[in-house]
Amino acid sequence: MKEKIMTKLQDFSKGMFVPVLILPIAGIIIAIGNILTNAKLAEYLPFLKNDMVYGLGKMLSGSLVSILTNLGIIFCVGLAVGLAKKKKAEAGFTSLLVFLVFINAMNIFLTLTEKLAPADALRGSGQTTVLGVQILDMGVFLGIILGIVVAYIHNKFCEKEFDGAFQIYGGSRLVFIILIPVTVGLAVLFSYVWPPVQNVINSLGEFIQGSGNFGIFTYGALERLLIPTGLHHLVYTPFLYSSLGGVAEIGGQVFEGARNIYFAEMADPTIAKLSATVIWDARGLSKMFGLIGACLAMYHTALPKNKTKIKAILIPAAVTSILAGVTEPIEFSFMFAAPVLFVIHGILNGLGMVVLNVLGVTAIGPNGLIDFLLYNLPLGIEKTGWPMYVLVGLGQFVVYYVIFRFVITKFKLRTPGREEDGDTKLYSKSDYKEKVASKDSNGESGFAPLIVEGLGGADNIVKVDNCYTRLRLIVKDSSLVNEALLKNETQANGVIIKGENVQVVYGLKVNGVRKSVDEFLGIEAN
């Protein structure tokens, strides 16, 4: 039962990547729009005073804000596509139809039962308008619920076919036929169920926010400590996109969730300072600063004979963390070899966010340096307080370095570069080229056969998937997985085995890895 629950949670976490990874793009475009409409910046860059440039900036920032007010449908379609095992495009189209059916069915039921609030008195009523239709304000949870329901029915019936005259009603048409009464029933059910659920969610958000710095510390620590399970996305996503992360009225519209709020505030020139709720997305502090101190500590504590090797391993990992916020290459370098360091990492990550909150810093720092510069510099120091964010980060860099170095040397931890037997693995450029250049008869990269071999062979692999940085698989027998081969021969940063679930961390190149494995196994993209 435990393994089944873990599998479902990991599937859900993976499915959430479809909408979650798209939304930051909206933020970056809004940031670019802010640059083009920034009056102070125009004093130094005269071309920004051009009416066409200014108009383009307003279009970019203004049009993308509409995404934030329609997160329900975005998560519904995105999650349905992410969770669908086959015919993903059809699952996405079906989810769009289901979403439209739901909001109109709920509106009609609320009207018939005289529960519909006056259109001019929605504030505080628990109701809102979605795509012009007035319903209960379920926010992003509406999309998540419907996306899961659609994916479940789709996976169960999308390949069910009929003979004869009923043939036309098979496949995805059957999925939609089944979903119509299910969706209408859910609309009626949630008309009664959702108001108390919303009260619980609001109370939970108030409790966490009322916990002050302790709540922020717990949030920041868990967001890192759950990395090995792949479920850390389930910690921060509700705070970024639901009322758990705050509620604010900006420009006459109500926004829920830390990220939605600060995206809207970025696009509104009348906002003098970003809201304190931005702290829930200050997760990039340790990515840009703390873990770099950890890398330096691991380098300085490495054995003299291994320092050249470990430097070549740690520098690319550090650069990836700083620029893109991808931390697994660093974290997996000590997570299993010295788990106490990973616990310390989680604690320091939470404490760093607490310091930012105490100092009232409202800089935007979700990931790496690129996002940080694009978001904060155009907004200015008064609106974000970004220089203090950098100072706190530099302080965290020092703290990580001192603590990691002390603990590694005091307890003689076998972090990378401290292996007496010389197991520190480093590929030469010629080795890498040889592996990449090697092809089998079907033209697949030489890494794919090694990966499949490391996973116990093709017959042992049940399902292949991936998220942002990890190859996620289901295998028949996890005891056949060769961790050493995957790490040493395929350049994997780490391997996590939970029952039949296996995750192999490859970082940003995971999409190419997934494609080569699919091709080698003869799996068609869907």
Question: Please, could you describe this protein's structure?
Answer:
With 526 residues, this protein is an alpha+beta fold. It has helices at residues 2-15, 17-36, 39-42, 51-68, 71-83, 88-112, 139-157, 172-210, 213-225, 233-241, 258-267, 285-300, 307-324, 328-334, 339-358, 369-376, 381-384, 386-410, 429-437, 447-454, 483-489, 510-521, and strands spanning 127-130, 133-136, 247-250, 253-256, 461-466, 470-475, 494-498, 501-505. It folds into three domains: 2-210, no CATH class; 218-410, no CATH class; 429-521, Gyrase A, domain 2. 60% of the residues lie in helices and 7% in strands. The protein has a four-stranded antiparallel sheet with strand order 5-6-8-7, sandwiched between helices. Helix 6 packs across helix 7 (139-157) and helix 8 packs across helix 9. It is globular. It starts with a helix and ends in a 5-residue tail after the last helix. Residues 445-526 form the PTS EIIB type-1 domain. The active site is at 467 (phosphocysteine intermediate). It is found in: Cell membrane. InterPro entries: Glu_permease_IIB, PTrfase_EIIB_Cys, PTS_EIIC, PTS_EIIC_1, PTS_Glucose_EIICBA, PTS_IIB_1.
